[in-house]
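Supplementary Methods. Inverse-folding protocol.

Structures were first reduced to a C-alpha cell string of length 720. This string, shown here, constituted the complete conditioning input.
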C-alpha cells in the first residue's frame, strides 16, 4: 500500500521496542513530534495502568448502556438482576431489549477496532480504516444489491456478500493509493472518491427499488437495533476467530513496520503477509456491516487513540497488544456513542436513530485533527504544474466556447424533447406559440423548468469549483469534495424539518448558512504555511462526513414517508423545479459575472503563488475571501434549487483548462458552459435511462465524476 522503506542498518529483532517509524515514508505515526523517553522499568506498570484505564472506560460504558433507556433501571435494579433478586419485568427489559444491543456493540466495536488497527499496520498509514478504504461502502452496496435481487440471506451468507463487496472496494483504493509516492492523505482521497461513487450507486438502488430496500437507509448509517440476539451470536465466532488470528500472527505486523527489505531479511513473505492481514481485516469489517450496517470511523478512531497511548506505554507498540487494545477501545467507543445518542435524543425515537450518526461526528473530528499532522503527498504547485490547453483552444478560445455553447443548446433541446413521454420539435414550437395540446403543455411546463434548473445549477457549481481551485491552488477542490455542498444540504434539510411552513426563501437561507459555516471550517483549518492542497481536501472530507451524519439524523427523525423525497433531493434532483426558484441562480451568476470580469486578471496571478500577486499590488487575502464568498453563494443557490450535486465543480473547470488553458477570462465562461452541459446530460440520462422511474442528476454526476477524480489523483501522482 505504501512504498518500500529501505534500511541501511541491521534491523533490531526485538520488536517489543519498535517505535513508529518517522520520516518521509511516514507509516503509522498518529501524533507528530518526538516520543517521550520512558524508563524500561516503568513499562509493566504503565501497561497495567493503560489496560486498566481502557477497561474502566469499557465497564462504565457497559453499565451506562444497560441502565439507559425508556424504562427506568438504576444500578440497584441492575445488580438485582445479576444476583437473581431483581423483578421479572426488569430482567425481561434487559434480556430482550438491552442485551441484544449490547452484544451487537461488543461484536461490531471489537471487529472494527481490530480491523482498523490491522489496516493501519499493514499500510503503515495512520488514516487507514474500513471507512477510508471503501470497505464499508463496498459491503453496504453488496448487501443492497442482494436485497434488490430479492435474496434472503442467512447471517453467514450476508457476511459472504458483504465481504466480496468490501474486498473489491479495498482493492481499488489500495491500487490507487500505493506506489513510490504514496501518502496517508492520498489513501483518504482515493477512498473518499470511491466511497462517494459507491454510495451514489447505493442511493440509486434505494430510490429505484424502495419496497425491496425498505429500512436500508437507516441501517446504512449503522444501527445497533437488533431483533433478538440470534444474528450476533451466530456471527460472533467469526469475529473471535478473526481477532485471534491477527493477535497470534501479530509479530509479523511488528516486522512489517521495519520496512519491506528488513522484513524479508527476517524471513517474512511481505506480499503474502499483507494479503492475509488485509483479508482478515476486511472479513472483520464485513461481519460488522452484516450485524449493524456500516458504523463509521470506529476503525479509525479506536486504533489512533491506542497509538497515542502507546507513545508512553512501550509494550503497546507490539501489535498483538495493540490490536487487542484497539478491539476493546472500539467496543467502548461504540457504547459511548450509543449512550450519548440516547442521552441527547428523548423518548422512544432514540432506538430508531443510527448510532453511526454519533460515530460519524467523532470520525469527522479525528480526520480534521489528523489532517494537521500527516504528510499530504500533493504539492502546493500541483495546479500550476498541470499541463493545460490545446493548440486550437489557446489560439481561438472563443471558437471553443461557442462550439461548446452549441452543444449545450442541442442537449437542452434534447432534454426538453426526451423523457417518459417523447415529444417533437413541432410540439415545442406549438407550446411556445400557446397552441399546444393539453398533454404537450403539461409535459413541457414540468420538463422545461427541470432542464433550465439543471443548466443553471451546473453553471453555478462549475464557476464555484473553478474559483475554489484557483484561490487555494488546489486541483482537487470542489464544493462537493470539500463538504460545502453537503453542508448546504444540511442547512436546507434543517430548515425543512424544523420550520412549520417552509418556502424556497427559507430553504435558500438555510443552504447559504450551512455552506458558509463549512467554508469557514475548511479554509481556516485546512490552511497554513505547511498545508498542502490535499490537506484542505481532507479537512473538507471530515466536514462533509459531519454534515452527512447530521443530515442522516434529521432525515431518520422525520416522517418515514418523506425519507424517499429527502434522499431524492439530497441526490441532486431537478424534480419539482419551478421557474421562479431559478431566479436566485440567475442573479448569482450575473453578479458573479460582473465581479469576475474585473478580477479575472487577479485570478490568473493568484493561481501560481503568493509572492507574484503581492508584488503587483494585489491584496491576496481580500481576493481570496471575495472569491470564496462568491463560490459559497453560487453553491448555496444551486443546492437550494436542485439539491446536492458533487464533482461538477471538479470536472468542468479541469475540462475547460485542458481545452483552452488557464486564462480565467476564457476558462470561467467555458467552465460554466461545460458544467451546465454535464448536469443537463446527467438529468437527461436520469430521466430516460430507466423510464418511467428516474434517477437524480446528482447521482449520475457522481458516477461520472468518480472515475475522473480517480484519474486526476493518478495523474497528479505521476507528476503529469
Amino acid at each position: 500500500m505504501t512504498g518500500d522503506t529501505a534500511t541501511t542498518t541491521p534491523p533490531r529483532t526485538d520488536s517489543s521496542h519498535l517505535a513508529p517509524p518517522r520520516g518521509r515514508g511516514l507509516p503509522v505515526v498518529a501524533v507528530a513530534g518526538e516520543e517521550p523517553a520512558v524508563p524500561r522499568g516503568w513499562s509493566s506498570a504503565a501497561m497495567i495502568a493503560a489496560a486498566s484505564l481502557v477497561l474502566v472506560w469499557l465497564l462504565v460504558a457497559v453499565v451506562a448502556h444497560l441502565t439507559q433507556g425508556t424504562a427506568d433501571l438504576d444500578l440497584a435494579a441492575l445488580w438485582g438482576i445479576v444476583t437473581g433478586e431483581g423483578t421479572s419485568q426488569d430482567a425481561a427489559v434487559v434480556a430482550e431489549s438491552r442485551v441484544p444491543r449490547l452484544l451487537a456493540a461488543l461484536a461490531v466495536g471489537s471487529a472494527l477496532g481490530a480491523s482498523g488497527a490491522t489496516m493501519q499496520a499493514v499500510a503503515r498509514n495512520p488514516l487507514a480504516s474500513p471507512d477510508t478504504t471503501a470497505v464499508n461502502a463496498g459491503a453496504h452496496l453488496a448487501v443492497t444489491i442482494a436485497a434488490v435481487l430479492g435474496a434472503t440471506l442467512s447471517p453467514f451468507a450476508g457476511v459472504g456478500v458483504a465481504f466480496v463487496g468490501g474486498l473489491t472496494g479495498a482493492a481499488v483504493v489500495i491500487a490507487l493509493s500505493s506506489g513510490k509516492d504514496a501518502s496517508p492523505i492520498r489513501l483518504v482521497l482515493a477512498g473518499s472518491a470511491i466511497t462517494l461513487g459507491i454510495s451514489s450507486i447505493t442511493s440509486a438502488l434505494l430510490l429505484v427499488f424502495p419496497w425491496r430496500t425498505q429500512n436500508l437507509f437507516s441501517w446504512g448509517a449503522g444501527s445497533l437495533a437488533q431483533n433478538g440476539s440470534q444474528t450476533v451470536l451466530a456471527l460472533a465466532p467469526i469475529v473471535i476467530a478473526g481477532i485471534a488470528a491477527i493477535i497470534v500472527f501479530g509479530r509479523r505486523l511488528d516486522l512489517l513496520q521495519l520496512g519491506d527489505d528488513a522484513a524479508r531479511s527476517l524471513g517474512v513473505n511481505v506480499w503474502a503477509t499483507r494479503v492475509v492481514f488485509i483479508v482478515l481485516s476486511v472479513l472483520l469489517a464485513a461481519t460488522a456491516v452484516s450485524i449493524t450496517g456500516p458504523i463509521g470511523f470506529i476503525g479509525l478512531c479506536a486504533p489512533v487513540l491506542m497509538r497515542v497511548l502507546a507513545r508512553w506505554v512501550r509494550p503497546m507498540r507490539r501489535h498483538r497488544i495493540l490490536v487487542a487494545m484497539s478491539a476493546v477501545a472500539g467496543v467502548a467507543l461504540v457504547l459511548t456513542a450509543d449512550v450519548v445518542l440516547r442521552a441527547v435524543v428523548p423518548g422512544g425515537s432514540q432506538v430508531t436513530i443510527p448510532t453511526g450518526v454519533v460515530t460519524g461526528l467523532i470520525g469527522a473530528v479525528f480526520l480534521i485533527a489528523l489532517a494537521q499532522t500527516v504528510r499530504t503527498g500533493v504539492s502546493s504547485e500541483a495546479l500550476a504544474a498541470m499541463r493545460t490547453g490545446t493548440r486550437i483552444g489557446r489560439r481561438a478560445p472563443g471558437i471553443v466556447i461557442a462550439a461548446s455553447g452549441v452543444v449545450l443548446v442541442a442537449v437542452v433541446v434534447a432534454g426538453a424533447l426526451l423523457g417518459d413521454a417523447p415529444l417533437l420539435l413541432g410540439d415545442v414550437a406549438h407550446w411556445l406559440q400557446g397552441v399546444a395540446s393539453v398533454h404537450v403543455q403539461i409535459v413541457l411546463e414540468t420538463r422545461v423548468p427541470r432542464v433550465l434548473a439543471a443548466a443553471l445549477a451546473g453553471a453555478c457549481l462549475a464557476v464555484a469549483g473553478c474559483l475554489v481551485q484557483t484561490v487555494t491552488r488546489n486541483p482537487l477542490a470542489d464544493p462537493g469534495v470539500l463538504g460545502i455542498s453537503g453542508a448546504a444540504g444540511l442547512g436546507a434539510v434543517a430548515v425543512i424539518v424544523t420550520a412549520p411552513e417552509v418556502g424556497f426563501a427559507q430553504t435558500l437561507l438555510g443552504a447559504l448558512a450551512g455552506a458558509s459555516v463549512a467554508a469557514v471550517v475548511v479554509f481556516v483549518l485546512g490552511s497554513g504555511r505547511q498545508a498542502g492542497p490535499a490537506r484542505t481536501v481532507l479537512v473538507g472530507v471530515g466536514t462533509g462526513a459531519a454534515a452527512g451524519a447530521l443530515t442522516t439524523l434529521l432525515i431518520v427523525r422525520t416522517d418515514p414517508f418523506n425519507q424517499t423525497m429527502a434522499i431524492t433531493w439530497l441526490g441532486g434532483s431537478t424534480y419539482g423545479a419551478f421557474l421562479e426558484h431559478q431566479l436566485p441562480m440567475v442573479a448569482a451568476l450575473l453578479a458573479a459575472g460582473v465581479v469576475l470580469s474585473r478580477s479575472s486578471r487577479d485570478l490568473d496571478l493568484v493561481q501560481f503563488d503568493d509572492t507574484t500577486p503581492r508584488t503587483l499590488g494585489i491584496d491576496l487575502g481580500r481576493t481570496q475571501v471575495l472569491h470564496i464568498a462568491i463560490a459559497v453563494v453560487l453553491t448555496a443557490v444551486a443546492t437550494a434549487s436542485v439539491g446536492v450535486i458533487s464533482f461538477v465543480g471538479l470536472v468542468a473547470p479541469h475540462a475547460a483548462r485542458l481545452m483552452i488553458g488557464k486564462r480565467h477570462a476564457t476558462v470561467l465562461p467555458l467552465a460554466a458552459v461545460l458544467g451546465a452541459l454535464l448536469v443537463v446530460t446527467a438529468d437527461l440520462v436520469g430521466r430516460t435511462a430507466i423510464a418511467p422511474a428516474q434517477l437524480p442528476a446528482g447521482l449520475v454526476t457522481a458516477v461520472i465524476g468518480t472515475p475522473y477524480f480517480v484519474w486526476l489523483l493518478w495523474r497528479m501522482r505521476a507528476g503529469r
